[in-house]
Amino acid sequence: MFTVQQIEDAHSKVKSGAEFPKYIQEIKGFGVKNFTTWVKDSHTEYFGENDFKTKSQPQYDDLEINETVDQEKFAKQLKIHQQGGTDYMQFCRDCAENGVEGWIVDLDHFTCTYFDKAGNDVLTEEIPH
């Protein structure tokens, strides 16, 4: 089993999206199978073996998620973030502005799927590992 504190300690080492793959490897080592992060306040629900789950506290005041998805603009801003061009808070603002409600990371398949308020997939990417 793992704790939110272990995950938050690992996440504290991430300064930009460029460091995300290393973070994913570290928390997979703790036993995290997948997690869902909600852009509204950045609380995250973590899932492990045998139906184990835990969740983090909100990380900031609520952001308003746009009703309309701008997939093209989001994809461009995501690339900038992944190359280290924005910090996490700016990335979350970009998600909200472009109608992205959250993302699900699957550590078995090394994918990250961004979704809108209706639960529709906006974009799915493979995580380098």
From TrEMBL:
InterPro entries: DUF1398, YdfO-like_sf
Any Pfam family matching the protein: DUF1398
SUPFAM superfamilies to which the protein is assigned, alphabetical: YdfO-like
Protein name: DUF1398 family protein
Organism: Chryseobacterium caseinilyticum
